[in-house]
Amino acid sequence: MKVVCSVNPGHCTVISYNFLLLIILQLCLDTVEGVWPLPQTFITSPERYQLKPQSFSFGYRRHLAAQHHCSVLDAAFKRYFSILFPDYASGNDTIRFSENEIFTLTISLDHHDCEGYPNQDSSERYKLNVSAGQASLNAETVWGVLKGLETFSQLVYQDDFGSYYINKTNIEDFPQFQYRGILLDTSRHYLPVQTILKTLDAMAYSKFNVFHWHIVDDPAFPYQSRTFPDLSNKGAFHPMTHIYTQSDVRRVISYARMRGIRVLPEFDSPGHTKSWGKGQPDLLTPCYKGGTPSGTFGPVNPTSPSTYQFMASLFKEVASVFPDTYIHLGGDEVDFYCWRSNPYIRAFMHKMGFGVDFNKLEAFYIEKIVNITSALRKTSIVWQDVFDYHEQHKSLSVVEVWKQGCYLCEVRKVVKAGLRVILASPWYLDQPGPTHNWARYYNVWPLAFKGTEKQKRLVIGGEVCLWGEYVDATNLSPRLWPRASAAAERLWSNERQTSSVDKAFPRLQEFRCKLLRRGIQAEPLDVGHCKHEYQSV
Amino acid sequence: MKVVCSVNPGHCTVISYNFLLLIILQLCLDTVEGVWPLPQTFITSPERYQLKPQSFSFGYRRHLAAQHHCSVLDAAFKRYFSILFPDYASGNDTIRFSENEIFTLTISLDHHDCEGYPNQDSSERYKLNVSAGQASLNAETVWGVLKGLETFSQLVYQDDFGSYYINKTNIEDFPQFQYRGILLDTSRHYLPVQTILKTLDAMAYSKFNVFHWHIVDDPAFPYQSRTFPDLSNKGAFHPMTHIYTQSDVRRVISYARMRGIRVLPEFDSPGHTKSWGKGQPDLLTPCYKGGTPSGTFGPVNPTSPSTYQFMASLFKEVASVFPDTYIHLGGDEVDFYCWRSNPYIRAFMHKMGFGVDFNKLEAFYIEKIVNITSALRKTSIVWQDVFDYHEQHKSLSVVEVWKQGCYLCEVRKVVKAGLRVILASPWYLDQPGPTHNWARYYNVWPLAFKGTEKQKRLVIGGEVCLWGEYVDATNLSPRLWPRASAAAERLWSNERQTSSVDKAFPRLQEFRCKLLRRGIQAEPLDVGHCKHEYQSV
User: Fold this and answer.
1) What residues are paired with B34 via a beta bridge?
2) A188 to chain B, minimum CA–CA distance in Å?
């Protein structure tokens, strides 16, 4: 006999089967606990099996085991072994891949491609079946297996005596939206690589799959370019300690890949580029006052051929360093004041027939940059400003909606124009709780607008933005977690099964305790406690 | 030639003395950097001396050195040696107490009492004089020496090559207010002892001197009483892992003492006591509904003699465990609903001639508790509610003002009644930044009310309150620091020298970087960077 929900482990003591079932059914009708974000189909029963670290193993299905092992999965087995059995002192040595052990989690996958990177079209589906002495995890790709391993790890619980258990469970799961991102801003404050890696760990626990790296901006240019080293030499907060070397970037990309996470770089232009100008002298527009240069600089100079030569070289490097097929070009908040003050810019406008419409000049610039990145076989993402102010949209592909107000009106406009959308507006988490609490982020439904099925499919996902004005390594984790996890469930799970804040609350509390147990500094949702509190060092 | 301010070390290069002086004077008129909170008198010059960890020593003035060394100061020398020279690998072994070293900081103090505890009347004055090859630090008490050591440590800076320097300096310093507290709430969330100790470290850096330990409340009773062990056995979140043992409490008190910090315990009653009822069955008032007990409980039952027997025993224990001469009795937010519902309470009211004025019942209760603690030679502090709702104030001593609105009107009322005041209202830091930013806490002046000098002297200080609804070990540090430091300067420094937010801003930014360097997770104030960012683990 099965019940369609998970059970709170504490309530499962054997009294009478029917009586127990009644209790469980009552509990379960109100709360579905155990996994965050909630799987699409989740069938569980009170029947439970003990797991012992000494006799637990991960295995490949026989015909796969004969093949070469998959490094992404082998590494994941090691990580999840520690997560499954946190009290078990040693670690890696004890993992055995025999099928004669007492409990084996057996993996099978359709496409045995372990060397590539996750991308926009990667399947993340998986099926997980837990029964006596064994569990099977099937997926189309390694990225699906990683999602299944995360789910499996969340199903395991400890009783008061420290023994590990898992209930009989059957899960079929896939994400509602393909793009589930988190933006970190490493320009307004430098984030040590360790902080980024720790965030990638936590992202995997909530099944986020895109790290949107807003790597440079006005205040600092920490990306160490091999083509233009002066950009960080002169534009970073410090040329040695506050930069991301090529090796740092590779490390981040590799660490993300091992967790099924894409790394989407953003090199925002033509605005938000003050720091670029320090290492690339003729790039920015000189502002004028009273007919002479004032000594200050505005956005990138869109009238100079050298600008596009520079951008082509830079993006050629970026395209080779970052393997993702997407690239974020920014394009937001361009201030026309400086362009307007500059007589050469005005002369160019006249020559091009733009009149006094600086949006046309910006469109001209963006068009050129999009062409540069298209030639590098990258799909470009732009902030909504580019869509809003430009008459022609044919060169655009993906628009990220970020402004407040009726953001779903904007989403509707963009999909009506046939473009894909990433929604960020409701998930600006740099505003701290408790006023901006998790429920605010949970109560969002990106498809709550009038549109055709085809239009709705153009909403490819959403993104949590943690801008850096008031955020650095000291407060990033508690500001992100667990509030970002609320958005994660919205982007992964079936909306009809996850529409109630009240029902979600105890599940999110439990998930937050799991995050603490995994060393993530996730802040509390309300009064209460976790069995294992966060231990500051 | 001296200038009355500190200098930004980076600007001090020897060009021409007069020219340099001009530059420094100009810089200094706008910004006084270097020490937070700002000393009362602070004279510094561009003359600087190199400090080398190998040849730096702390020493006692000769006639003192002959005496027994002072353990509080010996421990402080070790701590501050590491703080002074963070890049210097080894530590304790290298401290030598010879006077033949190249740079010696010599301590002298008037009262060589190292064994006691800081109290409300302890002098914290000190004089610090830094000249070639030596510095002298004079104080009346060891607590004053600790303040001077903190100041000395903030005067030392490193150049770009890692060498350590200090400028010629003359400081005379003392606090504006004697009571400078931080409240932590360990009931709404349990705080690991390590988190409390780390907070005590950070408090010392901002010269806070009272840790107000709101140790128990409705949600949990984590204090492990030796007289009534069931209080935490049944009232804590967990009877083993979420408690403060007697040994934990001793450790906190001892750690605080070594840093010149008093530990003020609060056992709030008669409200805020739900958790007490679990381990002390007859303590709380049974609420009634329709003439019968409803099964729920209200505030402490003020009509039963057993209540006062219990309270006398509990406070006898608390008075012996916590050495401070002050004790906080709470007394806030008593809900009369339950008392009103209970026929026995109503009968008692009638018998006592209280009519239907439950404030009288509460006053009756508080009066008894104050008498119990007075007999134990403790000065009691109560929240403003007790003052507001009671006609007679003769038994009260110190009132803590916490309500929002015109809090200075309340302060004025209390001092007019001849009672001492601690001001907390403007410093409720559980609301997070950036809307509740540091400037909001800096722009407070507790004496900005019409009153006599004598009345103003009754304002003994202020307190930062970090209530625990949404705060635990995961987010406590970035929520406290550096915003609490803004309040610290208000409570320590001369108001006329520290009235400008704009002038304070760069100094606070610099101080925040010092906190990071010392391992305190202090959040950023705005876009920017520190030479040494916080490294998450």
Assistant:
1) none
2) 5
C-alpha torsion angle, residues B194, B197, B202, B205 (rounded to 10): -150
Exposed, middle or buried: residue A70 (CB in 10 Å: 0-12, 13-18, 19+)? buried
CA distance to partner chain A, nearest, from residue B63 (Å): 41
The DSSP string of B163-190 is -EEEEEEEEEE--S-SEEEEEEETTTS-
Residues 6+ apart with CB under 8 A from A45: A1, A2, A3, A167, A168, A169
DSSP A228-285: -THHHHHHSSSTTTS-B-HHHHHHHHHHHHHTT-EEEEE---SSS-HHHHHHSTTSEE
Q: A237 — contact with chain B (CB < 8 Å)?
A: yes
Nearest chain B residue (CA) to A530: B237
Give which of B190, B218, B472 to mutate to test A binding, by max A Cβ within 10 Å. B472
Asked if residues A261 and A208 have their Cβ atoms less than 8 Å apart, the reply is: yes
Within 352-371 of B, beta carbons closer than 8 Å to A belong to none
Residue owning tokens 């949107």: A212
**Comparing C-alpha atoms, which of A384, A426, A432 is closest to residue A404?**
A426
What is the C-alpha separation between B491 and A468, in angstroms, rounded? 31
Q: Distance (Å, rounded) from C-alpha B465 to C-alpha B476?
A: 12
Q: A33, A99, A333, A391: which is the annotated catalytic residue?
A: A333
pLDDT tens figures, B223-273: 999 999 999 999 999 999 999 999 999 999 999 999 999 999 999 999 999
DSSP SS3 for A373: helix
Name the residue facing A478 among B192, B478, B535 (closest C-beta): B478
Q: What is the DSSP track for B277-333?
A: HHHSTTSEEEEEETTEEEEEEEEE-TT-HHHHHHHHHHHHHHHHH---SEEEEE---
> 3-state SS string over B257-274?
HHCCCEEEEECCCCCCCH
How far is CA A512 from its chain centroid?
18
Smallest CA–CA separation between A162 and chain B, in Å? 14
Cα angle A386-A387-A390, degrees, rounded to a multiple of 5 = 80
Backbone region of residue A330 per phi and psi (left: phi > 0; alpha: psi in -120 to 50; beta: other values): left
This prediction has a pTM of 0.92
A107-163 tens-digit pLDDT: 999 887 888 999 999 999 999 999 999 999 999 999 999 999 999 999 999 998 999
Torsion angle defined by CA atoms of residues A525, A531, A532 and A534, in that order, rounded to the nearest 10 degrees: 20
What does the H/E/C string look like for B523-536?
CCCCCCCCCCCCCC
**What is the identity of the amino acid at A274?**
K
- Please give the Cα distance from A148 to A125 (Å, whole number): 8
Say if residues B313 and B228 touch (Cβ distance below 8 Å).
yes
- A527 interfacial to chain B (CB closer than 8 Å): yes
Residue (of B394, B414, B274) closest to B334 by Cα position: B274
Q: Of B2, B36, B26, B9, which Cα lies nearest the Cα of B166?
A: B9
Handedness of CA B487, B489, B492, B495 (dihedral sign): negative
Q: Annotated active-site positions of B, please?
A: 333
* Dihedral Cα A297, A302, A303, A307, nearest 10 deg: 90
Separation of alpha carbons A229 and A123, rounded Å: 38
**Residue B184: φ, ψ to 5°:** -115, 145
Task: Report the distance separating Cα B376 and Cα B370, nearest Å.
Answer: 10
- The predicted-structure confidence for A53-82, as pLDDT tens digits, reads as follows 999 999 998 765 545 678 999 999 999 999
| A240 Cβ under 8 Å from any chain B Cβ | no
Cβ-based burial of B133 (10 A; exposed 0-12, middle 13-18, buried ≥19): exposed
Q: What is this model's ipTM?
A: 0.90
Chain A contacts of B472, Cβ < 8 Å?
523-524, 533-534
- C-beta neighbour count of A17 within 10 angstroms: 10
